Amino acid sequence: MNNLAMQPRYQAIKQHIIDMIESGQWPAAYRVPSENELSLSFDVSRMTARRAVKELTDEGFLVRSQGIGTFVAEQRPQGSMMEIRNIADEIASRNQRYSCKVLLLEEQPATSEVALALGVQENSSLFCSTIVHCGNEIPLQWESRYVIPGLAPDYLSQDFSCLTPNAYLSRIAPITRGDHIVQAMLPNDDVCIELGLTDKEACLQVKRRTWCRKGVISYALLIHPGSRYQLGAELEFNQQV
Length: 241
Description:
Layout: H1 9-22, H2 35-41, H3 46-58, E1 62-65, E2 69-72, H4 87-93, E3 98-109, H5 112-118, E4 125-135, E5 138-147, H6 165-172, E6 177-185, H7 189-195, E7 203-212, E8 215-225
Antiparallel strand pairs: 1-2, 3-4, 4-5, 5-8, 6-7, 7-8
């Protein structure tokens, strides 16, 4: 750690953690040392260690699960390259008629994956919805969403055939931040049936977390048939003349 000696101590801890992640020594879901362990290793106060961990969590390198620990994020979010849009508005912008099918709306215990994403204890209660969104009656997106009850207490009483979860959450707790992971996947049988896929064709899956002013509010799994949907982004480059 001698090469870190000239840095502020919290910055030295941050750089050490980043180096361990980028070298592959701490893979995704690896449990990082606690604030107490970091403070002892770097001979700093716990407050200094806490600042390093908090900043890395805010920057997307780490995720915290209450009562369990802090873990390496699945991958560092790449920033807001995709606008978080309401799927109903997106379908309407294509001159298609929006409709949906609400498959599930209930309270459920958090699985380990969802608990880690939302920073709650495993098996803690979450509000859950599963909806298939359609354009011109053709299924375009499977959405499974998990919501922190304390930040959206009336979630389960909403009529999501008229108002999408995204639109509702944006209204009661405006989104201040989001991150996402996009990957190709093969859907399970239930998803195939609801998306009208005769074969298990490759789909695009987006894992998305959204924050409001009070903290992370929801985690969504969005699955799109690869043959019916595409994701895009617009990049801007500053040219020096």
